[in-house]
């Protein structure tokens, strides 16, 4: 393509400009924007390879551009790209803040569309590249640019002795805050940019390493290896200007590269450190006149070097005595024309040449990419009808064979030299540093056909040579050499999508040419950007997921910056406790040192400071035991009023506290002083009585502002006869103020409003809801164009919708069951620069990918509406609970207290959590949450899931007696037969578990006052028979039940209704049989002889979760023996022997046997064995005795 030139004034305050164009069709090129003007630019061919270039004459601060279509035509642009350059080469595409490259154009030929640049561009040259135009016309343009002059002071550094040194004497530029700022550009990826040295050789250096800027600390000769404090920026070797600011105040330092800042905490000695010398381009020591040759000097340009506002380059120009060095006060830039291969369809085709040496070919180039694979070049072998392929695979360079050069997809420039001479192929990577490979094919290699480069490669290439001659890529651009498609010529458009990294919480970023990926392994977070925590925020939340006591990671701020912490969650009580340990929770004897008058101890907690404070703040209640055991060792009170001992508690190192456990802050008392029961009423602590007998002052510290205990100082420990011990227990907290925070919306027009939600790059929203309505908006926040919304769109669907400037996007989750069932459902939505996701309950996550180069800043400015919208339409009726935005809980209850139509709190949790109550436990509603009532269950624990078990020996028994009416108990024999018949039990539900090696054994015996009984036993011989009185016989075949006296855990369930009985034995199975009728007997108070003989053997084993109708006799004996009608004889030991995981502790015990038994009652099955014998004596509606 040819070029033409035209000159005009851009604006009254700008210099003359010159235009260069790819081609022209009409006579007038460029005119000022004017509805009355004529002409404009329209190229010969309307395609995406056309461009318009403006030379402003000198570097200029460009603030805006405006476009207009060609006058009186149908020719105008609808979108375009802007490129900027200082030299007319090495163009850089202007991108908006959200990485959007294209600009909106015109909709007709007459209107003017002006675009103000978000960040002004400083350049001499501007190039406009059409992307789209009116489909009914051609490319047509009138252009105007806006800006102002730009001045700067520049030096050029070429390595070696090319550097500047500034010696800073005390003067006006000394301030409490040191600030150094500059701009630099370079083509090399390593070199010393700036070196600042202070006292004793301590120095800070800014060094370029592999295209990244490193902040290094050198501490004189004592530390030869520098300490890396920060690493920022990427691809800084692109020969474009980069802005660097270094700010230091005391031990705090900020490093800014372009728009990204990293904060660094310097060692403490830097609080008094001051810069004495600055060196530019090399390291110069204060004690040496020569630069450090061990480091790489900078090759490039420095602009506007300022130290505390003073222009140091200007001082060098004026030959200031404090400045020495050898530099050029201009920027000499080498011309390097690069190519960008933007996609799989990009290629460059060059004509083949006859080798300068017969039968040979030589190709060289440099490339950089993020992709692991791609074809670099190929050419044909016409004589052999073959091809040669040079390509990347797994980030290694290959020519049909593997060669060296690993990790070539690191974004750095890599050189490749390919030579074929005299039947020998040679490939060299990075001048041999990356590897050399040789091959010797049996045929000559020439390039008589076309040379094809990069047909599937995405990346940049430069310094292309063929037969050791450079390829003129500008001629390629002008279509005078070779052919190409979808190339960006004279620029390298590589972008580092990992700098700055969008991977949060320590996620590791990797990338290809078009996308980045976050590896969230071992971070405790998940999602496309490692944003959302995989852990719950409290022990309370783990409990309501159905977990039991154990160690858990909790993340108190969810997706916030605080890392997860490992805690112990104690869920054995009604209250769920979070336990945070420190390094010494045991009772510790004080061992005084002779030369020390006080004993001081510091407590280190297992969690970090910010984790600890956040856990305390989030909990409803925290406590910590503090106890002092003393013998002639006073604690607090002295004659002059100052305490002997104190402790430090609260945030940071803690504040001095002079009260003890159980008392109030500032009281200088112990618990006994508050209660008035100290051993000496003249003192407020037991230990202050100074007695020879051991005593103690103990209690709980419950004021959260003074927790945790950090240190303890004990003073009265050196006197003769003084002895003392202390204990500081673990920090225990319960309650989660966030988990149950809820609001009830009783009208569709009601809502809560909060300040604007700020989630520009990452936003996660989670909450629980329950409703009987079929639709409603949970949350909405609007901007000028952007918005974010979550709503129940139907009774089975939740929708997460938003717009960040790319048009509305929706993520939907469909439920197979109705969501308006008045049960709690959990919603988790996340939106980041990569994708949006929505999860409902435990359904699969739905995702929606974000555009690769689209807008990604969410810009909102209105109030955040909860439970409704600003229009008061489509409001939500129901409850919303535990609403969190980016890990921060919104206090719905407090806002609901002052908002009409919204009520704080939301009862009715058993409908959702009642299933957590197991084994006949009953769910009971509470103001915040629920509780499992285990009074009717044989189990205990927070969810009635803990087996209540006991170990029995032959002499152990438990008797449980039902209270009988007074008249009945006064004279049992006087009961008429009618009462007898009415009070006979018609049904029983009995269950128990056991473990034993004893056979035979009596497991259960139930007897009424009316001469009826039921017995369950393990029979040694499997005989069947009928007993005296009324014996209920459960006829189980011997072959159908295996031996149960095997030390394993077995469970028996017996259900009787009139004459039908079912027996279930686990393992192995269930069998149902009919009740055997009882024969007539004579009334007798004596026990059946066979059963009596069996009972006399006692029982050795374990019995667990014994349940008779609504009574749990074993649980009553173990847990409520003082309030239950039980009598315990012999040793009864609670154990976990009823747990399925428990091993058999009775395998070595001897098994007693019955011998010479004839007739009588026996339970004809392999039996059920446990560590106890239960004797249940029951009388229907009258009284029951249970013997164990």
Notable traits:
single chain, 1188 residues, mainly beta, Jelly Rolls, 6 domains, eight-stranded antiparallel beta sheet, 11 helices, 82 strands, globular, disordered C terminus, transmembrane, EGF-like domain, signal, Fibrinogen_a/b/g_C_dom
Describe this structure in words.
- It is a single-pass type I membrane protein.
- Residues 154-331, 337-492, 741-906, 957-1137 form the Laminin G domain.
- This is Contactin-associated protein-like 4.
- Keywords: Disulfide bond, EGF-like domain, Membrane, Repeat, Signal, Transmembrane, Transmembrane helix.
- The structure is a single chain.
- The protein is mainly beta and 1188 residues long.
- It has 6 domains: 19-149, Jelly Rolls; 154-326, Jelly Rolls, CATH 2.60.120.200; 338-489, Sandwich (Jelly Rolls); 586-603 and 626-729, no CATH class; 742-906, Jelly Rolls; 950-963 and 984-1134, Jelly Rolls, CATH 2.60.120.200.
- Helix content is 6%, strand content 40%.
- Strands 1, 2, 3, 4, 5, 6, 7 and 8 form an 8-stranded antiparallel beta sheet that branches.
- Mean pLDDT is 80; it is low at 1-16, 26-35, 442-449, 965-983, 1022-1041, 1070-1084 and 1146-1188.
């Amino acid at each position: 393509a040819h070029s033409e030139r035209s000159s005009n004034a851009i604006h009254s305050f700008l210099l003359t400009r010159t235009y260069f164009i790819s081609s022209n069709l009409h006579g007038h090129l460029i005119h000022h924007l004017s509805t009355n003007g004529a002409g404009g630019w329209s190229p010969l061919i309307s395609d995406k390879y056309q461009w318009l270039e403006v030379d402003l004459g000198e570097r200029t601060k460009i603030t805006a551009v405006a476009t207009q279509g060609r006058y009186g035509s149908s020719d105008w642009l609808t979108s375009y790209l802007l490129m900027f350059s200082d030299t007319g080469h090495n163009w850089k595409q202007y991108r908006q803040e959200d990485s959007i490259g294209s600009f909106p154009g015109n909709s007709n030929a007459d209107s003017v569309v002006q675009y103000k640049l978000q960040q002004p561009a400083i350049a001499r040259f501007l190039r406009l590249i059409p992307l789209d135009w009116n489909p009914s016309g051609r490319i047509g343009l009138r252009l105007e640019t806006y800006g102002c002059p730009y001045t700067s002071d520049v030096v050029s550094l070429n390595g070696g002795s090319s550097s500047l040194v500034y010696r800073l004497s005390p003067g006006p530029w000394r301030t409490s805050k040191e600030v150094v700022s500059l701009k630099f550009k370079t083509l090399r990826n390593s070199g010393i940019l700036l070196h600042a040295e202070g006292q004793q050789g301590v120095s800070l250096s800014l060094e370029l390493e592999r295209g990244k800027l490193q902040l290094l600390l050198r501490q004189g000769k004592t530390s030869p290896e520098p300490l890396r404090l920060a690493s920022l920026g990427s691809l800084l070797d692109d020969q474009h200007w980069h802005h660097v600011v270094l700010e230091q105040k005391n031990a705090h330092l900020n490093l800014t590269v372009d728009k990204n800042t990293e904060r660094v905490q310097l060692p403490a000695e830097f609080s008094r450190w001051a810069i004495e010398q600055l060196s530019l381009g090399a390291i110069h020591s204060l004690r040496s006149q020569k630069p450090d040759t061990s480091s790489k000097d900078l090759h490039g340009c420095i602009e506007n070097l300022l130290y505390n506002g003073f222009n140091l380059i200007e001082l060098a120009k004026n030959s200031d005595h404090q400045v020495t060095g050898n530099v050029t006060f201009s920027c000499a830039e080498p011309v390097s024309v690069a190519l960008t291969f933007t996609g799989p369809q990009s290629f460059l085709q060059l004509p083949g040449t006859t080798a300068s040496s017969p039968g040979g070919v030589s190709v060289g180039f440099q490339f950089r990419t993020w992709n692991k694979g791609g074809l670099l070049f190929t050419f044909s072998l016409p004589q052999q009808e073959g091809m040669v392929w040079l390509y990347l695979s797994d980030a290694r360079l290959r020519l049909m064979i593997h060669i060296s050069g690993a990790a070539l997809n690191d974004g750095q420039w890599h050189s490749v030299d390919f030579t074929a001479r005299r039947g020998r192929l040679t490939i060299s990577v990075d001048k041999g540093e990356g590897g050399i490979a040789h091959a010797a094919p049996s045929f000559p290699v020439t390039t008589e056909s076309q040379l094809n480069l990069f047909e599937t490669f995405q990346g940049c290439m430069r310094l292309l040579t063929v037969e050791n001659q450079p390829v003129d890529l500008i001629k390629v651009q002008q279509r005078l050499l070779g052919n190409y498609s979808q190339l960006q010529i004279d620029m390298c458009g590589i972008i580092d999508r990992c700098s700055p990294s969008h991977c949060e919480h320590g996620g590791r970023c990797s990338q290809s040419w078009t996308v980045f990926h976050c590896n969230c392994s071992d971070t405790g977070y998940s999602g496309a950007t490692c944003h959302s925590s995989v852990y719950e925020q409290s022990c309370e939340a783990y409990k309501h997921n159905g977990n039991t006591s154990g160690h858990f990671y909790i993340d108190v701020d969810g997706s916030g910056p605080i890392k997860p912490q490992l805690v112990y969650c104690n869920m054995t009580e009604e209250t769920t406790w979070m336990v945070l340990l420190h390094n010494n929770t045991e009772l510790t004897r004080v061992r005084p040192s002779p030369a020390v008058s006080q004993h001081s101890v510091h407590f280190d907690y297992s969690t970090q400071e910010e984790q600890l404070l956040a856990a305390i703040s989030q909990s409803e209640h925290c406590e910590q035991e503090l106890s002092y055991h003393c013998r002639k060792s006073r604690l607090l009170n002295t004659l002059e009023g100052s305490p002997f001992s104190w402790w430090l508690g609260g945030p940071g190192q803690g504040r001095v506290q002079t009260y003890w456990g159980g008392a109030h802050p500032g009281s200088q008392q112990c618990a006994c002083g508050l209660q008035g029961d100290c051993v000496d009423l003249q003192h407020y602590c037991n230990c202050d009585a100074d007695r020879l007998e051991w005593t103690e002052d103990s209690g709980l510290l419950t004021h959260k502002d003074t927790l945790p205990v950090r240190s303890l100082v004990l003073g009265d420990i050196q006197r003769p006869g003084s002895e003392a011990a202390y204990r500081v227990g673990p920090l225990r907290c319960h309650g989660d103020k966030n988990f149950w925070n809820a609001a009830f919306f009783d009208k569709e027009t009601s809502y809560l409003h909060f300040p604007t939600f700020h989630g520009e790059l990452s936003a996660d929203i989670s909450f629980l809801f329950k409703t009987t309505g079929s639709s409603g908006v949970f949350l909405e926040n609007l901007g000028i164009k952007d918005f974010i919304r979550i709503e129940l769109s139907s009774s089975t669907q939740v929708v997460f919708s938003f717009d960040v400037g790319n048009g509305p996007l929706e993520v939907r989750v469909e439920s197979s069951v109705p969501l308006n069932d008045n049960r709690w459902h959990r919603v988790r939505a996340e939106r980041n620069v990569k994708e949006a996701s929505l999860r409902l309950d435990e359904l699969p996550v739905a995702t929606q990918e974000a555009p690769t180069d689209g807008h990604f800043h969410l810009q909102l400015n209105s109030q955040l509406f909860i439970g409704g919208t600003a229009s008061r339409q489509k409001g939500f009726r129901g409850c919303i609970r535990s609403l969190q935005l980016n890990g921060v809980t919104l206090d719905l209850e407090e806002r609901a207290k002052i908002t009409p139509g919204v009520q704080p709190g939301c009862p009715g949790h058993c409908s959702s959590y009642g299933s957590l109550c197991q084994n006949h436990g009953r769910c009971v509603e509470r103001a915040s949450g629920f509780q499992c009532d285990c009074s009717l269950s044989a189990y205990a624990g927070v969810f009635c899931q803990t087996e209540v078990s006991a170990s029995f020996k032959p002499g152990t028994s438990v008797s449980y007696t039902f209270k009988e009416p007074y008249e009945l108990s006064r004279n049992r024999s006087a009961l008429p037969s009618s009462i007898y018949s009415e009070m006979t039990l018609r049904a029983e539900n009995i269950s128990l578990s056991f473990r034993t090696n004893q056979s035979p054994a009596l497991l259960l015996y139930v007897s009424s006052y009316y001469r009826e009984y039921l017995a369950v036993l393990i029979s040694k011989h499997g005989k069947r028979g009928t007993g005296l009185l009324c014996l209920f016989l459960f006829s189980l075949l011997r072959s159908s039940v295996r031996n149960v006296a095997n030390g394993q855990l077995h469970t028996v369930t017996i259900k009787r209704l009139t004459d039908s009985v079912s027996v279930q034995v686990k393992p192995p199975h269930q069998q149902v049989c009919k009740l055997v009728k009882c024969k007539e007997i004579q009334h007798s108070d004596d026990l059946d002889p066979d059963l009596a003989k069996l009972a006399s053997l006692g029982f050795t084993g374990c019995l667990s979760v014994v349940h008779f109708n609504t009574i749990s006799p074993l649980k009553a004996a173990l847990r409520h023996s003082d309030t239950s009608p039980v009598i315990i004889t012999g040793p009864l030991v609670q154990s976990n022997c009823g747990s399925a995981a428990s091993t058999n502790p009775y395998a070595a015990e001897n098994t007693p046997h019955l011998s010479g038994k004839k007739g009588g009652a026996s339970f004809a099955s392999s039996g059920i064995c446990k560590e106890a014998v239960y004797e249940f004596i029951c009388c229907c509606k009258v009284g029951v005795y249970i013997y164990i």
